[in-house]
């Protein structure tokens, strides 16, 4: 009797920020991550991720990334999915078929409000996954970096 095996992606690493480039933080593996100061001030990318999550994701995945009756808690999912796997699911979509519990995550590849902010979404969800950012809108944020504005304008215009 054979045993089916499933190839799992490498789990995300420690979300601790070890590097910053133009106001965006990265972990030791080079994946985007959050930076929350002791006074609760979040980096701008975490704040942007909060905004994009509530524009595109919360209807299915629930407020504060805590899940709903038909979509999983993304704050838990990013504990298992590294950045590449997360991006693949958002870009390509995903279908889960389990006994009476079929679910479909649509592709967001054509949605600029998701794709232009893919890093930001992942960053926000990582912050929620460790409770570095609590429920609701972050009260304080860093200033918007010029690099953010430049990347946003380029992505949204398609140039």
From TrEMBL:
SUPFAM superfamilies: Cytochrome c (SSF46626)
Species per Swiss-Prot/TrEMBL record: Methylocystis heyeri
Protein's name according to its UniProt entry: C-type cytochrome, methanol metabolism-related
Annotated region described as Disordered, given as residue ranges: 132-159
Sample GO molecular function, one term: electron transfer activity
Biased amino acid composition, Basic and acidic residues: 134-145
């Amino acid at each position: 009797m054979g045993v089916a095996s499933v190839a799992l992606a490498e789990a995300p690493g420690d979300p601790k920020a070890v590097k910053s480039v133009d106001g965006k933080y990265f972990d030791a593996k080079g994946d985007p991550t959050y930076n929350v100061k002791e006074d609760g001030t979040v980096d701008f990318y975490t704040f942007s991720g909060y905004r994009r999550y509530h524009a595109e994701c919360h209807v299915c995945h629930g407020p504060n990334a805590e899940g709903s009756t038909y979509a999983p808690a993304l704050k838990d999912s990013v504990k298992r999915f590294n950045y590449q796997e997360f991006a693949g699911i958002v870009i390509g979509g995903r279908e889960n078929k389990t006994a009476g519990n079929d679910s479909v995550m649509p592709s967001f590849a054509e949605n600029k409000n998701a794709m232009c902010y893919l890093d930001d979404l992942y960053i926000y969800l990582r912050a929620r996954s460790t409770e570095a950012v609590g429920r609701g809108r972050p009260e304080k944020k860093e200033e918007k970096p010029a690099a953010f504005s430049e990347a946003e304008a380029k992505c949204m215009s398609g140039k």
